[in-house]
Amino acid sequence: MADPQAGRTMVQVLHDTLRAEMLRDPAVVVMGQDVGIKGGVFKVTDGLHAEFGPMRVLDTPISEIVIAGAAIGAAMMGLRPVAEFQFADYMHAAYDQIVNQAATMRWRSVGAWSVPVVFRAPSGGGVHGGVYHSQSIEALYGHIPGLRVVVPATPRDAGGLLRAAIRDDDPVVFFEHKALYRRHREIVADDAEVVPLGVARLDREGGDVSVITYGMGVHLAREAADRCAADGIATEILDLRTLSPFDREAVARTVARTGKVLLVHEANRTMGPAAEIAAFIAEELFTDLDGPILRIGAADCHLPYNGPEETAILPDAARVEEALRRLAAH
């Protein structure tokens, strides 16, 4: 058990949150490939099988469509499943179940049925995993009515958002950047905190330029903002936390405060989440703008195993810093 006063990693907080929710509500069950005896490939579910048994921590076949379909059926029968996919890339096989079944059930049943299920998956690159282990696919699910899409950036938010997702009566797709699992520690003062879905968090105040981002982008923005601060550029960082629905009011506030906006994400740039947010800003907040809306995303190609090539494709703090300086000088 980690020392709470020393801070906990995202993996530890996710584990502790799952355990606490299973203790609180016997309807919460965990399922997925190797989540039981093995404890998950990233050890988020480590020890839960021994504590709660095989009826609440289910090792499934190596079939993503089975993981999703079983979780949806269980949710419709009164349970609150947390279904883990080993990597977000593997979720494509379950896309039909998630999009055509889970997302549409409340609509198709005119509110008679709900699907309180959480689909968890490690996503993102930077770990030299290549294709099948590095994709950021949040935009695919943000387009679908009936799904909530969540991407935490910090250990504290990971716990609070997962707690809210488990208690939500609608399906939630919950992406965790694998490179953040053990990268940072944070003291989580309230292990019962529920972070509301759809509410952004102001990570840093500033009056010159706004960075609107989420997940790994928050940490790139922090690093770039520190460098820019040495030259008197005050950067505001808005962590969306939930992509669908995203917090339009919080976006409006930061745009009004600075008038200059940079959108950052690790998903491919073309048709990524930043495109939708940029469209909202252009359509609804145009008079608050004092410069062009800039976007940074991954290059429109698949990530390789090769480290230098992967680095060239992904966003980094240097690119964010360059864009911030360009906007500040505008």
Question: Strands, helices and their partners?
Answer:
Blueprint: H1 10-24, E1 28-32, H2 48-52, E2 57-59, H3 64-76, E3 80-84, H4 95-102, H5 105-108, E4 118-123, H6 138-142, E5 148-150, H7 155-167, E6 172-177, E7 201-204, E8 209-213, H8 216-229, E9 235-239, E10 242-244, H9 248-258, E11 261-268, H10 273-284, E12 294-298, H11 307-313, H12 317-328
Parallel strand pairs: 1-2, 1-3, 3-4, 4-6, 5-6, 8-9, 8-11, 11-12
Antiparallel strand pairs: 5-10, 7-9
Helix pairs in contact: 1-7, 3-4, 8-12
In this structure, how is the largest beta sheet organized? Answer: 7 strands, mixed
> Beta-strand percentage?
15-25%
Widest sheet, order of strands: 2-1-3-4-6-5-10
Order of helices and strands: HEHEHEHHEHEHEEEHEEHEHEHH
- Name the helicity range: 25-40%
Which superfamily, in CATH terms, is the homologous superfamily of the largest domain?
Answer: Thiamin diphosphate (ThDP)-binding fold, Pyr/PP domains
Average pLDDT taken over every residue: 96
Give start-end ranges of low-pLDDT stretches.
Answer: none
CATH C-level class of the largest domain is: Alpha Beta
